[in-house]
Each structure stands twice: as structure tokens, then as C-alpha cells.
Amino acid sequence: MGRGALVTTRVTVYCGSQRTVPAGYLELAAEVGTAIAARGWSLTWGGSSVSMMGEVARTAREGGARTVGVIPRGLVGTELADDHADELLVVDTMRERKALMEEHGDAFLALPGGIGTCEELFEMWTSRVLSMHTKPVVVLDVDNHYRGLFDWVRELGGRGFVSRHALDSLTITGDVATALDACAS
């Protein structure tokens, strides 16, 4: 489907915005954007035109996907807001950003990223565990980017702090197609 067509799945993607990420992660973001477009889906992301955020949006758009960026006013200059987005929502706070990204997503996909990506992932994952939504939450974990983090979370489960239900409610994969299939489930 082309841009502006009826879409069945709106994927909210969380990923890195640092300009210092290795080229392989930029290639991954481009692959994800292309794959989202190939499925006729739309993309919601953090509204930046740089780094992984910029690549996922650029390639999704080039493939015909509708792109909705959500960026706080204070980051418009810092993260270089993507003026090519089909819709660019400029908000006042990070909380507003996250709320709109949640509202505009039928599934949540975390690519490699830093603390902001982790914070967004954990909020959507926790909300799902607490039955505040039933949308898929998926982690695309290439190069074992999140291995240490999820080893720790599983350790917390072993100590009784994280339920089996919580652990089972998150899909973690290193494969783009598998991640997008999980977003559609």
C-alpha cells in the first residue's frame, strides 16, 4: 500500500538517536523501515531525522509508509526534527511524546538504543503486564545489544521480583522478519 492508504498496523519504533552509533545499527534501522513499508504498515517514531531514528523513518517513507513523528519542542533543534514526516507532532514534554507514540501504535518495537529507548520499552512492557493494553511489545536484539539487561531481568524473575507472565509477555528476537511478525500478532 502506498502512503496515505488504509493501514492495518501502526508500529511505534523506539531506537537510538545518538550520532555515534556504529554503521551496522544504521543499516538495521534502514532494514526495519524498509520492511515496515513492504508490509503496508505505518511508522510512529520519535520524530528525529538523525541516527537510527532518521534511518528508520527515511527508509519507511521511501518505501511508501506513512510516518508520524513525535518530538518534544526542546529537542527540535537537538535531534533535528524530521520535516519530511507525513505528520510531525511537536509536544511540550517527554511524557506527552510517549503518550502520543503509544496512542499512534498498534505494536511497539524496540531496536538497539540507550537509556531513552530502554525507558520507553519498559513503560510499554509494564503497561502490557498490568493489562493497561494488549498490544505486542517486541525487542529486536541484534548483536546481543540487550543481553546483559535481559539476563538481569531474568535474574530478578529468579528472585521473585518479575513474574513468569511478565517475562512471557515480551518477544525478544534477533531477526527483523520475526520481530515484525510478532508485531502483527
UniProtKB/TrEMBL annotation:
<keyword id="KW-0203">Cytokinin biosynthesis</keyword>
<dbReference type="GO" id="GO:0005829">
    <property type="term" value="C:cytosol"/>
</dbReference>
<comment type="similarity">
    <text>Belongs to the LOG family.</text>
</comment>
<dbReference type="GO" id="GO:0102682">
    <property type="term" value="F:cytokinin riboside 5'-monophosphate phosphoribohydrolase activity"/>
</dbReference>
<keyword id="KW-0378">Hydrolase</keyword>
<protein>
    <recommendedName>
        <fullName>Cytokinin riboside 5'-monophosphate phosphoribohydrolase</fullName>
        <ecNumber>3.2.2.n1</ecNumber>
    </recommendedName>
</protein>
<dbReference type="InterPro" id="IPR005269">
    <property type="entry name" value="LOG"/>
</dbReference>
<dbReference type="InterPro" id="IPR031100">
    <property type="entry name" value="LOG_fam"/>
</dbReference>
<dbReference type="GO" id="GO:0009691">
    <property type="term" value="P:cytokinin biosynthetic process"/>
</dbReference>
<dbReference type="Pfam" id="PF03641">
    <property type="entry name" value="Lysine_decarbox"/>
</dbReference>
